């Protein structure tokens, strides 16, 4: 079975050090352990890295940067195709506010680079049924494959022999 290609948004990475949400943090740490073992191919975008670095809590930024040093990943640079797909997300009625531009770019990055899954804890804007259905439609009309948007808990331990 081929490795799944994961796109991680800043909310997912942020949960590696989120003491106020222990279940989600532990789920993300479990996924991180699987990533370190090479179970997944990981993609990050310059948008994700910029969002992480914009955090005013410098200790948290340093902690997250240290986590990133533990894994292999490819960095996606924003190009015209990603921007085109992000705009298509907006014209299809999803995340239309200018404040949601980065969320549209996350979707564009994940779709254009052929990711199987966008890992996110942004339930309000990304990891919800309406956005997922809309993104699948945008992906299809753009000529790209399907993508799922899920939190870490939906990935951990999957594919292993479980009783």
Structure description:
The protein is α/β, with parallel strands linked by helices and 163 residues long. The protein has a single domain, classed as Rossmann fold (3-Layer(aba) Sandwich), CATH 3.40.50. The protein is 47% helix and 11% strand. The chain contains 7 helices and 5 strands. The protein has helices at 10-14, 22-36, 46-53, 58-68, 80-91, 101-112, 129-141; strands at 5-8, 41-45, 74-76, 117-119, 148-150. It has a 5-stranded parallel β-sheet with strand order 3-2-1-4-5. The longest helix is centred in the N-terminal third of the chain and has 15 residues, at 22-36. The chain starts with a strand and ends in a 13-residue tail after the last strand. The model is unreliable at 159-163 (pLDDT under 50).
Provide tags for this entry.
163 residues, alpha/beta, Rossmann fold, disordered C terminus
Question: What can be said about this structure in brief?
Answer:
By secondary structure, the chain is an alpha/beta fold. It has helices at residues 10-14, 22-36, 46-53, 58-68, 80-91, 101-112, 129-141; strands at residues 5-8, 41-45, 74-76, 117-119, 148-150. Strands 3-2-1-4-5 form a 5-stranded parallel sheet.
| Shape designation | globular
| Helix content percent band | 40-55%
User: Rg, please?
Assistant: 15 Å
Low-confidence stretches: 159-163
Mean pLDDT: 94
**SSE order:** EHHEHHEHHEHE
The main sheet comes to: 5 strands, parallel
Tally the beta strands.
5
CATH architecture: 3-Layer(aba) Sandwich
Q: What would you give as the CATH superfamily?
A: 5'-nuclease
CATH first level: Alpha Beta
